[in-house]
Each structure stands twice: as C-alpha cells, then as structure tokens.
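Internal ticket - ligand job 509, nicotinamide-adenine-dinucleotide:
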Amino acid sequence: MVPPRATATQSTERLSSYNPATGDVIGTVAIMSATDVDAAVARARTAAQTWATRSFAARNEELVAFRKAIAASADEVADILHRENGKPELEAYTEVMMALSHLQHASACAEHAMKPRKVSSGMLANFRATISYHPLGVIGVIGPWNYPLFTPMGSIAYALAAGNAVVWKPSELTPLVALEIEKIAKRTFALPDLLQVVTGAGATGAALAKAAVDKIAFTGSAPTGKRVMIAAAERLTPVLLELGGKDPMIVDTDADLAAAAEAAVFGGLTNSGQACISVERVYVADAIHDKFVEEVVKQVRELKVGGDDGHLGAMTSPAQVKIVKDHLDDAIAKGAKVHTGGPDAISGSYIQPTVLTNVDHRMKIMVDETFGPVIPIQKVANVDEAVRLANDTTFGLGSSVFSKSRGRQIADKLRAGMTAVNAVMAFSGIPTLPFGGVGDSGFGRIHGDEGVREFTRIKSTAEQAFSIPINMMSFRQPKNAVKNIKGMIKQIYGDGVVAKAGDFLRKLR
Ligand code: NAD
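stdout (structure tokens):
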C-alpha cells in the first residue's frame, strides 16, 4: 500500500510529515501565512544588518561552531532524514556529511572569494579601479524533498558565509529536518534570527518569493522554478534556479566496463534515483553494449530494496511513484526490454531497480525527468551519436563520460553545467566546483567561490589617484578638443602607434 501522504493546502492549519516507508505521521508543522513569512524576513533583515558588519574571521568562527553543532547532532539529523525522506541510513549520514563539507568550505573560502580585486583602468590611467563584493542582505531559500539538507545547504552555507541572513522554506514533504537545523542555528549563532525556517506548502514558498528579500535561491522542478521567477519579478528580486535534469552517461568503447557499470548502477539508483544529478539515461557504443548491460544487470541483482540494511529505500512521494510507472509503461509500450524490476515490480512506495534496453528518444524515459530507480540503456553506433543524443534535451545539469583515452574531449562537447569523467556525480562532492545547470536546469551557481559571489552584490569603484591635464569628465575643454579627441581615437584604437603597441603587448600576454 502506498502510504497516505501530505498534500498540504493552506486550508488546514498544520501540515503532517509522514514516514514514506510506513505511512506513519512523524510530526506536524505550522502552515505559515504570507504575514508570517514577511515577519520572518523583517527579523532576518535586522540580523543581516549586524551580521554584515562582522569580520570574515568572526563570521567564520560562528559558522564553524554551527558546523560542529550539526556534526554533534549527526545521529538526530540523519535519523530524521531517514524517517522523513525514506532514504537508507547510510545515505542519510552521507547527506549530512556532504552538507557539512559545504558548510566547512563556504565559511573557509568566503574571504578569498569576496576579496576586492584591482583591475586595469584602461585609458583612465590616473584611476585605481576596484571590484568589491558585498552581502546582499536577506536570502530566501526554497528547497526540495529529495536531498532536504544537502541541497538547501548549498545555498544557505554560502549565503551566510557571504554575510547574509537566510529565511528557508523547506519542502512540505520534509520540513522536520529543516526545523532541527533551525534549532541548532538558534543555539549556535549570536543572532537568533540569522537562519529562520518558514514551513508550509507551495503558497508559503510563493509568499517568500514575493517577500522583500534580496535574492531567492530556489531548488526544485522547472515548472515551479518558472512560477518563482514570475513571482520574484514583481519586486525585481534576482533568482538562482537549481532545477531538474536528464543527466546522460556516455560509455566509450575503451571504457573500463566494470567501473562504468558500477558507476551507472550507483548513479542511477542512489537515493532511489531521486537525485537531480542521477544518471537518467546511458548511451553505450554498439561494440560493448551487450557486455555492459550484462554487467549492470548482474550488479543490480545484488541490491536489496527496503529494510534497515537496504541499498534502496522507499520513494518519498506516491506522486513520484506514479510518474515512474507511467514512464515505464510508456517505454514498454514502445518496445523497451525489461531486464530487472519493471512496472509489475512496484509495490507501494517501493520500486525495484529497473534496467531497460531497446530504448530511444520517442520514449518519456529518455527525455523527461524520471526521478526513480531506473537505468535505461540505449545502444549507439559511436561516440558522436552518443554526444548528439546526450545534447538532445532541454535540460543541462550533470553528465558523465567513461573513456580511457578521450574522456575530457567528450566531456567538453556536452552542453551541461557539470560533467564527471570516469566517475558519476563527483562534481557535487568537490566543494570548490560551482554547481548548476543550463537551459531548463536553471541558472546561477552554488558551491565554490562562484557560490559565495552568487550571494553578493558587485560594486565597482573608480578612484582618481592623481589628476592629468586632459580631463574628459568636464565641460571645461580647450578649443581644439574635437581635433584632440579625433587624434586620440586614431592613436589609441585605430592604426596609430599607441594602438599597434597595445595590440602587440596584448598578443604577448
Ligand atoms: P517542487 O518544484 O515541487 O518543489 C520545490 C519547492 O518549491 C518546495 O519547497 C515547494 O513547497 C515549493 N513551491 C511549490 N510551489 C511553489 C510556488 N508557487 N512558489 C514558491 N515555491 C513553491 O520540487 P520537488 O518535487 O520538491 O523537488 C524535485 C525537483 O527538484 C526535481 O525536478 C529535481 O531534479 C529538482 N532538484 C534540483 C536540484 C539542483 O540542484 N539542480 C537539487 C535537488 C532537486
């Protein structure tokens, strides 16, 4: 039986969070109104004003204390993740660890990422030109349910480290883990309103998108992302959109087949395939296709679904189970071959890992985000065809390539925000690498220096160091000013000696 699930509306006062494995209610939370959201944003504004004046060292000290407090509560946090999201214990702890790695990196790298930069002042040689980075103020973070801690932390950690306060709206399917983190934040930060959580369903998220925040960092589906962008447009609030994906994996003829198969199995099935950077489709060269499929099927058959020591847990939402079944039915009706699992092996909130072959781009399973434990493998003539099909999508989030001799070359041809070579998903675990997509996968970047700067405003300063006889920013010009400027245009930008010397020096650089 698929357990009953929270389909929260604003008509009820509280929202229940369920354990998807059992259907039990594990907690209830308030459904916050627009008034509640606005009040949280106003409190955050006050906290942000003080937080922004702190030195990087002082902010780092508090962020380190926050990180250590979460690490000390890892058992409680992982237990909530396990019960509320349905993921196995090991995956819950892995999520806690990955979230902490970003918190650690963000606080450590913020000062370097926001260091003012001196740049060339061009023809205004008497000026000092500087680019500096400043906190935006209050960041609204709207999160999904699949990685309810790791994903929002990618925005929260970098936003806080850059000197902002945060108001976080977690998914209605996984609000309890956010409240646990808020509890830890309140007892760690000197400013109790620095990180606040507002709970509720879509209407609460919409209220946050319309509130007086300085940026919205949204992670979720592309249709909701578009709604968030429209709502934010009312105040011209900038948005960062981390949306869905249809990540391809390419297996070249010279790939280490066992390693590629192991990676496809993990990348397609971890978190029961409910990851934005899941391996959603695999393209394998004809010459090695059958061997690869055999290895994948062998490894998938070793996996256990459900139970405390299962490799795959319960699907978080029954709505998602229906989408996966629909994609499987559609693929089978159009000729796909089922090697393991399949629609008949779905039971309640559990889906047996499913390997499909004979798939193609007429099928939803190869073009729409499936978000379930399915590995569809398409045979291709060669790598060129694989690259063409990999790029035949409106999404562009992650991707992976297995090849001994030309992994990097193939990677560079993929239209995606991120590519792992001879690995899957590795870019998300490297905190220095910016994370984000193109096309329907969104825009903007979390993680790394770019992730810090995403939550800053850029300020350009032109500082006059000394005065020179020709002052272009004055109406007091000599009579022959037009003649002078004509000469300068020729000299500096045309065929003059100065232009030639400049072009020569630029070539040498
Ligand atoms: P979703 O779009 O249904 O919901 C995301 C969040 O938006 C939830 O908190 C929800 O309450 C809120 N929301 C709903 N309607 C809203 C509205 N009108 N205005 C503002 N907020 C609103 O997504 P989901 O089902 O929770 O998450 C799954 C999706 O997230 C998948 O597509 C997945 O690929 C994507 N995802 C992307 C990344 C990434 O980094 N790119 C990471 C994780 C998940």
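Auto-summary: The pocket of nicotinamide-adenine-dinucleotide is lined by residues 142-147, 151, 169, 171-172, 201-202, 205-206, 209, 219-221, 224, 227-228, 242-245, 276, 369, 397 (CB under 6 Å). Confidence is low (pLDDT under 50) at residues 1-11.
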